[in-house]
Amino acid sequence: MITAEIKAALRVAQRNELTEYYVYSKLSAIERDRKHADILQTIANEEKAHAAFWETKTGEAVVPSRLKVFFYIACARVLGITFAVKLMENGEKLAQVNYEKIAQVLPEAKRIEKEEQAHEEELIGMIDEVRLKYVGSMILGLNDALVELTGALAGFTLALQNTRLIAVTGLITGIAASLSMAASEYLSTKAEGEGKDPLKAALYTGIMYVITVVLLILPFFTLANVYLALAATLIVVIIIITFFTFYISVAQEVPFKKRFLEMAGVSLGVAVITFGIGFLVREFLGVEV
Are 155 and 230 within 8 A, CB to CB? Predict the structure, then answer.
């Protein structure tokens, strides 16, 4: 017998499946690789069939969550289809407890649960996005910029005591370092010969470096107090690390906490050390600006 509790769980499952049908259909429409697009549409059709099955049990029509559809499509356009799909699949994992409850009354729920699990495996095997292929280059540019520029800005803050001068010095340092890192990544990728385009690897490294540089020095262009600007920069560092670590943890399925603590510890640790160096330079070398 289908109780009120089970029927409520069925409606949730029905709406989730219908929402995912619209997400996969739209992802199929924006995917340029025809093979990937066809698989996405096949999965969309399966989700639609699941929703239709649940409707026969609830006897009610439901509407998809338009907010979720918009959110996942926006994620796909900005961060890539792989990220959007895996984020959504993680949401499906959280919903599996509903299938367990439903299966006690409707054994067919077990079949649907297995199909949902198969979706994720199929998706992982099918998608080979360029941005994930070059994620190592992105990490290199981001991590180097965070460590080097955070440390440099901390040192400049105490040694120079002028926000505009610190910002300009940091910008020059950052741009020079980004060109150096991009060139190094080009030569390194070319020497390794791992099937990656050296130019693309260099561009990903350089672009990530420059974006990080701009975000880190922005507080020094907008705030007058050097210590307030440095504090704002450190907050930006934490935000960048949090966002990028979350992206990597979802797209590559790696632990979030360990990578976050590692990146944050290195960047902030270097900042503390170089802040101390700036203090020593100011006190013992008599640098005044």
Answer: no
Secondary structure tally for the chain: helices H, strands E: 12, 0
Degrees (nearest 5) of the Cα angle 161, 165, 167? 105
| 40 CB-contact burial (10 Å; exposed 0-12 / middle 13-18 / buried 19+) | buried
* pTM value surpassing 0.90: no
The whole-angstrom separation of Cα 44 and Cα 42 is 5
Cβ-based neighbours of 16, under 8 Å, separated by 6 or more: 92, 95
Tokens 């790696």 correspond to: 254
Give Rg (Cα) of the chain: 25
What are 49's two structure tokens? 């069939």
What region, left, alpha or beta, does residue 59 occupy, with left being phi > 0 and alpha being psi -120 to 50 degrees?
A: left
Closest by Cα among 225, 232, 73 to 150? 232
How far, in Å, are 1, 21, 106 from residue 103 at the CA level? 12, 22, 5
Say how far apart CA 242 and CA 132 lie, in whole Å: 18
For 11-46, how does the pLDDT look when each residue is reduced to its tens digit (9 = 90+)? 888 888 899 899 999 988 888 878 888 888 888 888
The span from the CA of 53 to the CA of 112, in Å, is 10
Maximal CA-CA distance, the chain: 84
